[in-house]
Amino acid sequence: MKKNIAVLMGGRSLEREFSIKSGQRVSNALRKLGHNVIKLDINESIVDNLNSEKIDLAYIALHGKDGEDGTIQEILEVLNIPYTGPGVYPNVLSFDKIISKQIFMSLDIPTPPFYFLNTSSFRELGSSKLLPLITKKIGLPLVVKPSAQGSALGIRIVNDKESIPEAIISALSYSKKVILEKFIDGVELAVSIIGKEKPRILPAVEIVTKKKFFDFESRSKIGETDYFVPARISASSNKKMKEVAMAVHNALKCTKLSRVDIIMDTKKEIPYVLELNTSPGMTDTSLLPMSAEAAGLSFEELVDEIIKMSLKD
Amino acid sequence: MSKKITFDYWEHLYSNRTEYMFSSEIRDLLSLSARPEIISFSGGLPEVRALNFQRLERYIKRILKTDGDISLQYGESVGYYPLKTRLIEVMKLEGLDTVEEDIITTTGGQQALDLLAKIFIDPGDIIITESPAYTGALNSFRSYEAKIIGIPIDQNGIDTSILEKKLKELRDKKARIKFIYLVPNFSNPSGVTLSLQRRKKVLELARKHNIMILEDNPYGMLRYKDKPITTIKELDSKGDGHNVIYISTMSKLFAPGFRIGWIVAPHPILEKIILGVQSSILCVSTFSQRIAYEYFSDPSWINNIDEFIKIYAKRKDTMTKTLEENFPEGTSWSAPKGGFFIWLKLPHYLNTKEILADAVRNNVAYVPGSAFYADGKGTNEARLAFCTENTERIEKGIKILAGIIKDKIKLYKSFK
To answer: What is the CATH code for A4-84?
Structure first.
């Protein structure tokens, strides 16, 4: 049945361009499915715009700030408009990697060991003096990353302790808190989960990049990264990966949709969870559509499934 | 069975040069700067609002009434001859003497760069640029698979002693050097002007090594003080007159929307460029050239330049003064006497690409320095365009940037 679907895209996040690409692709699919599409940018008029149209469902094609931190979800809750993707609670938890990693650890879900520090602790509490100790405890190389930023922006892999201050300053340009995390040398995996009452795990994508890690350029430039679906890992590793991905999805109380990013230590068969994404990319090179296709779902069928389960709310 | 994902079924068919065309997170971050709340020091956008739109309307009406059929038709590949008569007058104001037959019009200065890259560059050829250099030129040369070698600049432009050594070194290695690319007046991005002495030296070196100079002069007429310095092209014409190709554009003198640039070059080179035009666009927009002809035929166009200069000079002064009053110790910036840009240098440990995220979040944008280096340098540098925003917003934006940078420096000092 034809629905009025508002596709929320753009916004004020640093991932605006990604979001517009996702939103446009989703909009095209929705039109092909016979729906009426209203594209909305996220700005000071968003509440008025959402109020002025008769909207059956909001498709959240936003990435980063406002779209994945619970902000837009809360607005839609107040306006009583059903929306795609997980609710406010999982968004708030997953957007802050420190909170989500603390939850993973409390539930014995493997995640790379880390410490976090914030801007004021450097300025007012002399936290910089902790860096030699942190480096000693975690070991080099270590990953320095902002606590709340997507698309790998602001992430650096540091091989020597002299480069740590610069990496911290860079990460703190994206977020008020910085994570110093153990670098895990393993297979990079993206595990997408879809479904409301009975969530199911789609075939995992294995990411093989020419760079040191799956950075911004590797994500956006075709040819920079090779993707294999399903991931070329052993059956036992695959089983462990799935168990952990579902545990993360449930731990953060996700519903309908999520993508869990994992580094698999293939020698020890430990799937280390890096983070959970509540609004996975839907562009030509995005990971969720790749997994869906491997499961036999075309892009339109994937969008159709997402909106059908969201309309039932 | 695992399968490698194929995004683009035609990947195996693309030319090698597409490997050298890429996007970057800088571009994505700067896409945010289009939002009205963002104070943008990123794009060098001319103040077209200062043009007299009613007068333009009159020109267009007159063209359509008198010779609409011709002006809406295909034109000659060499360009609209009457416009060239006006371009000669424009160039004379900067002391450059030339004739209509030495000029070809192009679709903006950017197409002039592309055409010259097309006719001169084979994969692996060496192009020498000032460093930092205009990104549009770097991208154009790279797309033809040139190897770019950047020569550092100081307050007088490209360092000719380093250039001399580098040319000798390359020559000894029998490297194929094609040309030296320079923006001698108020360069994009540095704002620096090449001194007369160095212009002569660069020309001497080009002659010695039998290579060309591409003299790109989009900003020469936008001079806020002092007299024009002789163009390298004019210096060349006093000798054999074979080593310099001169490029300019109407984007800054008139409006970028018309997309008109031009090249002045020795005849054999023009012949090759014409072949390049014929195999790409056939001809530059006749209608645009016709409007530009009307504009430059009206003596009032020079008043518009004075108006542009007045606006930009005030904005430049505001930016410089606000930088002086607010930027912390350890930072420095160029002092342009014209053009659109100020080049900012921060302490070595600050990365302007990363700080841009903070700046954009605080509603200010600029272009990180690494975009202007072929070798990834310039990570602690940035280009600030003063031409786009009004003085109040310039003051506000620079103060916001100063706050962010002071904060970062303080943070870094806490590590010591």
So the answer is: 3.40.50.20
CATH class of A114-182: alpha beta
- Chain B residue with CA closest to A120: the answer is B411
Report ipTM for this prediction. 0.80
Which chain B residue has the Cα nearest residue A175? Answer: B358
Together in a domain, B223 and B101: yes
pTM here is 0.87
The answer to whether residue B20 neighbours chain A at the CB level (below 8 Å) is: no
Give A-chain residues touching B29 at CB under 8 angstroms.
14
Domain A93-110+185-311 coded CATH 3.30.470.20:
yes
Number of structural domains found in chain B: 2
Condensed to tens digits (0 to 9), the pLDDT of residues A194-245 reads 998 899 999 999 998 876 666 666 666 666 788 999 999 999 999 999 999 9
Verify that B209 and B269 share a domain, yes or no: yes
Contacts 24+ apart (CB under 8 A), B313-321: B313/B224, B314/B391, B315/B386, B315/B387, B315/B389, B315/B390, B315/B391, B315/B394, B316/B224, B316/B342, B316/B386, B318/B386, B318/B391, B318/B394, B318/B395, B319/B384, B319/B386, B319/B394, B319/B398
pLDDT digits 0-9 by tens, B210-261: 999 999 999 999 999 888 999 999 999 877 778 999 999 999 999 999 999 9
